[in-house]
C-alpha cells in the first residue's frame, strides 16, 4: 500500500517512475481510473490495482497493451 490515499498526477508519475505525460496516456486509455478535484488525482488503491494487472504486460503504448513474451535461456 502506498503512503497517501490520493495522489496528484505528478506524484503518480514519480511512483510509477515515468513522465507525467505517460500517466495522462494511461488515464486516456482507461488503464488508470482517475478523478478530477480541481486537478486530476488518482487513488493509491488504483495505482496498486494497475501495477498488479500490468505485471507481465508491455504498456509502453497504453492503447496497444501486449503480453510480454517470456524468453527461455539457451541451453
Description:
The structure is a single chain. The chain has one domain. The chain starts with 5 loop residues before the first strand and ends in an 8-residue tail after the last strand. It is 37% helix and 20% strand. The strands form 2 sheets. Strands 1-3-2 form a 3-stranded antiparallel sheet. Strand 2 and strand 3 form a beta hairpin. It is an alpha+beta fold and 75 residues long. The chain is built from 3 helices and 5 strands, in the order βααββαββ.
From the structure above, extract its key features.
75 residues; alpha+beta; 3-stranded antiparallel sheet; elongated
Briefly say what this structure is.
The protein is of the alpha+beta class and 75 residues long. The chain has three helices and five strands; from the N terminus they run E-H-H-E-E-H-E-E.
Number of domains: 1
**Mean pLDDT across all amino acids:** 91
Count of alpha and pi helical runs = 3
Task: Name the shape in a single word.
Answer: elongated
Helix content: 25-40%
Structural class: alpha+beta
Strand order of the largest sheet: 1-3-2
Q: What order do the helices and strands come in, and which of them pair?
A:
Layout: E1 6-8, H1 9-16, H2 20-28, E2 35-37, E3 39-43, H3 44-54, E4 57-58, E5 66-67
Helix pairs in contact: 1-2
Amino acid at each position: 500500500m502506498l503512503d497517501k490515499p490520493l495522489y496528484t498526477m505528478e506524484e503518480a508519475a514519480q511512483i510509477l517512475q515515468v513522465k507525467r505525460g505517460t500517466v495522462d496516456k494511461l488515464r486516456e486509455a482507461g488503464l488508470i481510473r482517475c478523478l478530477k478535484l480541481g486537478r486530476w488525482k488518482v487513488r493509491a488503491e488504483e495505482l496498486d490495482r494497475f501495477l498488479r494487472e500490468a505485471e507481465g504486460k508491455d504498456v509502453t503504448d497504453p492503447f496497444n497493451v501486449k503480453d510480454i513474451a517470456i524468453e527461455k535461456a539457451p541451453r
